[in-house]
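Intended use. Records like the one below are meant for learning the mapping from a protein sequence to its folded structure. Do not use them to infer anything beyond what is encoded.
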Amino acid sequence: MIPILKKNEALPDELPSDAFVVLINKPKGWTSFDVVNKIRHALKIKKVGHAGTLDPFATGLLIIGVGRATKQLQQFMNLDKRYRAVIQLGVETDTYDVTGEIVRKEKTDSLDKERVILAVEEMKGEILQMPPMFSAKKVNGTPLYKLARKGKQVERKAVRVKIHKAEVLSWNSPFLKLDLLVSKGTYIRSYAHDLGQRLGVGGHLFELERVQIGSYSVDHSFDINEFVDYWKTKVKRLQ
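Structure written out for the chain above:
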């Protein structure tokens, strides 16, 4: 049984340095690889991986596998994910998120809360979703984002995903805050874009936090430096 390290929970009596999983709260501005690289250097272990990428502008739960535990990461990738998302309606970008170039602007005066809630309700359940060009999804072995950066558009196949839950937390025009529970493979950026299209004003993903993967919560995750400090203390204590 591979141990899973969680913040504020009792640690296993024996913790193999080359086979465990740890929950990390990714900070804004870091890539998922930045987190992996930090742990790799701090622990001096080459084999470190993660179960599901988060974009640099996003925050929240990353499940990190260390050493032999990297072979167990697939089981986490297949789990449902829960997000807190802020969508800015009335502004559409080429990346479908806040990092992109603005390609469309519309007024949101005509949108009332009832209309927004109805659109959100209509996008629940099983839906077809087009992967964004600015994504790591590969076409003929090449990540889409590399083609997008060259100004190339390629044909993509729509993917069937499931929106288990979509609850409106607040609507302060033009910002919509949602609690989303989705199946694996769901792009929240594409969801934001598609919702904007449905409402006729465009939209993009303004903020994103992954709060849960399966039953694993960001509330039980370590800040990256917090985990590194813990590890140094643990190693020193065992020496």
